[in-house]
Amino acid sequence: MLDLYRRTVARFPLGSVSYMFAYGSGVKQQEGYGKVGNGKNLRPPPGTVVDLVFCVRDAQGFHAENLHRHPDHYSALRYLGPNFVAKYQERLGAGVYCNTLVPLPDVGITIKYGVVSQEELLEDLLDWRHLYLAGRLHKPVTNLVNPSDNPPLKAALDRNLVSALQVALLLLPEKFTAYGLFHTIAGLSYKGDFRMIFGENKQKVHNIVSPQINDFFALYQPSLGQLSDYVAVNMKGQESGSRKPAIIFEQDKSSSATCQHLRQLPRELQKRLQRNAACRGDYTQVVNHLSMASQLPEVLQASVNDIVWRSSVTQSIKNIPSAGLLKSLAYSYRKAQKTFAV
């Protein structure tokens, strides 16, 4: 599969690309879809779209060269030039410009790709300003550029995972299974998404987590180690209603542990908590109040949902002109087909 991805991305201007990843049902195994292979010559499941994200240092330069190479990837916005496209990318929605349903006959796949500036991605990873690409990166993806070669980006990616784990711990009870943990994490960027009302399979989070438990473990092992003072593997048990073995975690639910997690939450989430909490005052006062409040999980989930709802609505509206009306309708139709087929 990696050979296929390399042949796919080789056609793009990669000079300013600082990070690149592939994700989605065409890349990572999900329940209800064809098998995703790992062999060199294996392909994505039939009918799936391979989702790519290019993180770039120079958005205008990337679009200028990409418009020259692939004008047919763009909607009528291409006639307004690369400067307009870059500003449209960076100033609206979640800071991502998407080209949708791009057929690549030479490799036999269809792709959707988003372009984001490194500055915007760093802000989303660290502060959860949009919880858009940060949410995508809560789940396993296939890196096509090693983020370890970019220390600021690698640090932000790691911080994003720790933040997701801390929010999940605040939402979960004292004891929980590995499936419960990763289902909670994967659901953070879906529960507030307006597209979950229509167009997305309601079992989407389960379909992502269930076949990827091992990938989630590998992704979150460093974060679990970093928070080992607050959460640990307690024992092996069984999933509720199943005979399958399950790893049981146990966490510290003391008010001091809760305060520690709340103090380290991303900045945008802190702002939402201040707005949604019954307590009024600065964030330190809100933390002290919430650490002893039985309603903390509800307030926290509502605050996460606020961020996701706003970005999912604005980015979806933004994607209509960038994709073009016909492609937007075709993409929505594909989504609906997958929803009712699964």
UniProtKB/TrEMBL annotation:
It is found in: Mitochondrion inner membrane. Its EC number is 2.7.7.41. Pfam families: Tam41_Mmp37. InterPro entries: Tam41. It comes from the Eukaryota. GO terms for biological process: cardiolipin biosynthetic process; CDP-diacylglycerol biosynthetic process. Its cofactor is Mg(2+). The keyword Transferase applies. It catalyses: a 1,2-diacyl-sn-glycero-3-phosphate + CTP + H(+) = a CDP-1,2-diacyl-sn-glycerol + diphosphate. Its main location: mitochondrion. Pathway: Lipid metabolism; Phospholipid metabolism; CDP-diacylglycerol biosynthesis; CDP-diacylglycerol from sn-glycerol 3-phosphate: step 3/3. It is a peripheral membrane protein. Signal peptide: none annotated. Keywords: Lipid biosynthesis, Lipid metabolism, Magnesium, Membrane, Mitochondrion, Mitochondrion inner membrane, Nucleotidyltransferase, Phospholipid biosynthesis, Phospholipid metabolism, Transferase. GO terms for cellular component: mitochondrial inner membrane. GO terms for molecular function: phosphatidate cytidylyltransferase activity. It is an enzyme of class 2 (transferase). Belongs to the TAM41 family. PANTHER family: PHOSPHATIDATE CYTIDYLYLTRANSFERASE, MITOCHONDRIAL (PTHR13619). Catalyzes the conversion of phosphatidic acid (PA) to CDP-diacylglycerol (CDP-DAG), an essential intermediate in the synthesis of phosphatidylglycerol, cardiolipin and phosphatidylinositol. This is Phosphatidate cytidylyltransferase, mitochondrial.
